Each structure stands twice: as structure tokens, then as C-alpha cells.
Amino acid sequence: MGYRVAVVGATGNVGREMLNILEEVNFPVDKIHAIASRKSIGVPVTFKNDDNVPCEDIEQFDFSKVDIVLMSVSGAFSKEWSPKIAAQGPIVIDNSSAWRMDPDVPLIVPEVNPDDVSYAHKKNIIANPNCSTVQLVVALKPLHDRARIKRVVVATYQAVSGTGKAAMDELWDQTKDVFVLGPREPKVYPKQIAFNVIPYAGTFRDDGYTDEEAKMWNETHKMLDPDIKLTVTCVRVPVFVGHSEAVHVEFERALDEDEAREILREAPGVVVIDKHEPTGYVTPKEAQGEFPVFVSRIRKDPTVEHGLTMWVVADNLRKGAALNAVQIAELLHQRGLIRQKALA
User: Fold this and answer.
1) Which CATH superfamily is domain 3-129+322-334 in?
2) Catalytic residue, candidates 55, 144, 234, 243
3) Catalytic choice (55, 131, 144, 234)
4) Which whole-number Å values give the CA distances from 95 to 43, 125, 264, 321, 322, in the listed order?
5) 221 classed as catalytic
6) What pLDDT digit, counting tens, does each position of 45-84 carry?
7) Residue 120 in this model has a pLDDT that exceeds 90
8) pTM across the whole model
9) Residue 333 bears catalytic tag
10) Cα-flanking dihedrals φ and ψ of residue 41, to 5°?
11) C-alpha closest to that of 151 among 307, 313, 343
12) Strand 243-251 to strand 149-157: parallel, antiparallel, or no bridges (unpaired)?
């Protein structure tokens, strides 16, 4: 018998990917519900062979009749709604930043800290990490287990889809306008994103870092190891889908590049494509639509005693968001942690 699943935020980029991936991995769904705000009532979304699943109003929906809820909404919306939904019985897997650092809410990447799912029922909420953090910790975990990481320096190259559909539209419109009408005034980003890069994502903090950058070290500390020193610069680039990261890692023990490649080749959720030739690496274009975290350009960092540098790429809408949420649901299913309701 399958589960009754609700996807909240079903009309957004990540919500639609959640529906697609539930189908792709053949997650046991008995009944699907697409939930959205009042303005999207009746808007059709697609699940399996049905391209006319109408969106239902979150204000009117009875969450006591479902087993799992996948949330793809803003942090403020989740803060209001996730506890209300969880109180009605289903377990909530939330993609926003609202619950990630709550000590009573597990923050999970199944390849990294699956056992943390055991305390999911403290609040009936599980948090999905930031998209940039997900791919980073998937690549770091097996190397940390082998040689213990001391310090990581990361520069991200983040696709505009991480900001939402409006940002994707802005990149598309600006790209066309450069050649036709001249660049228009930016609305989503503070500066033009087409044919440009913006070394700013999120909101500035008092220390000069942004909250997007702080998410990466806070979430890595919670899931992997609080003793890892981590500094980040988040950069938005004119790419529609797929986040990339240049990652510099310093270890406590020696780990050469050949052994690192072999460790990563055996690691769950990782694909290594690393040849010393002009096309021997992965770009965000190749990662788009794929499940794994890709690692390329693994090489020695000669500036520290035990250092490696690598290039990490993943589809931010999939592994960085929707896929990871569905994998959490699969983990709950495998461990018998979904409190399934009797069919009416």
C-alpha cells in the first residue's frame, strides 16, 4: 500500500521537480495532492500519467488525511505552516531555511547523516539543507571519514534558478535585451546578471558575509562536523540550472589525489569525471537533469601540508532540493518511520 503525499508549493520550480522525482524513483504514492496558495487554486500540475492534477488551497486542505508533506515554500511561510501541518499527523520535509538550525529538527542529506532521521518525530519536521550545502557535504563526507577535514575554502558559482522563476525570467529577458533593446533595469538581482557575475547572494550580515554563505558553514557543522573551519564566497552566475563550487580542502592526515578519486568513486551519490584533457570535467550544463553530485579536477593543493582542490557540480533543483527531499522520504520509508494512516 502506498502513501498519501502532499506537495506544498507544487507550482514552483522545486515543487514541480518534487512531483517529477516522486514518479522517477517510483516512490510508493497511493494518492497525490498538489497544494498551493489561493491564487493557484485549480492550476493543473502533472503527476505520472495525469497532467491535470488541480492545485488545492492550503487554507482549506485537511492535512490529517495525508502521510507525508513535501514543502517548497518560503521560510516565513514554512514557519507558520509546518507546525500546523505536523500537528495534524503527517511528517513534513521542508525545503526552506526555516527549520535547519532548530536543534529538535534533523537536517538531513541521506548520504551524509541518515541516522539523524531517528529523531524526526520530535517535531514531525525534517529540514532539507541549502542547495549549495547539499552538494558540498556529499563530496566532503567520504574524504572526512578517511583523513579528517580541518579547513575548507569554497567559492560557489550558483545558478539563477536557486532564486526562483522570476530570476530565471530576468536572466532570459536581459540576455535577449542585450542584443535587441539594450539591458533593462534589474529587478530580482541588484545588478545585471546576463553576461555578468554577482559576488553576492542573500543578505549581508554585520561581519561582511551573507546569510547564504553562513548557511553553508552552519549546516555543514550541524550535519558533518562542528570543528571544520569553513569560509565561503557565494557568487551568482548567468546559468539557469546547476550550481558549481571550487572547493579547497585541508586535512589532518595525508590524502593524495589518486586515493581521493577512488574514495569518491565508491561514495554514494557521487560520480567522478576527472581526466586531464580539455573535456575531462563536468559543467552545470551536463549536470542538469541528473541525480548525482559530480566531482572533477581533483588535485593537490601545494599551499598547505595536506591539501586537495576539487570542482563540485550538481543540479540545484534536483539533488540540491527536490531529489534530496524525496530521498529523505525514501529513508523514512525504509526505516518504517512514516506513521501511515488507515484508509478511510
Assistant:
1) NAD(P)-binding Rossmann-like Domain (3.40.50.720)
2) 243
3) 131
4) 22, 11, 26, 7, 8
5) no
6) 999 988 889 999 999 999 999 999 999 999 999 999 999 9
7) yes
8) 0.95
9) no
10) -55, 130
11) 307
12) antiparallel
